Amino acid sequence: MARFRAVILSDTHGRLPEEVLRACRRADRIIHAGDVGSDAIIPELEALAPLTVVAGNVDPPGLAPERARAEVGGWRLLVQHIVWERGGPSREARDLLARQAADLVVFGHTHEPLCVEREGVVFLNPGSCGARRFSFPRSYAEAVADRRGLGIRILDLDRPGAAVAEARFAPRPGAES
To answer: Is residue 175 part of a domain?
Structure first.
């Protein structure tokens, strides 16, 4: 399997920090999990790499679909803005996963960076890379899929080079070898 690198964003709320743009220029794919906040951001990201984007609760109707499916380095993705509630996946997310499996669920909304595996599915919230809200760090994620599996780093924009979280997940059955 060839190495595949994705940059994962959420909750930009109309702002794209230069560090995030630099990371996106080196990406094989960009994934934006909603609350884009400005229709100018979508073409800016599309000019850098193939883009998968969904609308968030503050985005105008028609900006992007509510959810999207994609594949990144053999990993099946579900992207939807609101997925997590009360410490776990929402009933809607669980129902979606029961109907159509995914290996990685990318979401936003809470602004809280999170990367956990539950029942064989990785749930990733890259946090918010827009203006600071709440007490969470401004952050985004990078995911690298290769023959060893999937490595995820959630990067802290206020401490360049520092990771909020790092995780590695084993290759999924059926993924290219």
So the answer is: no
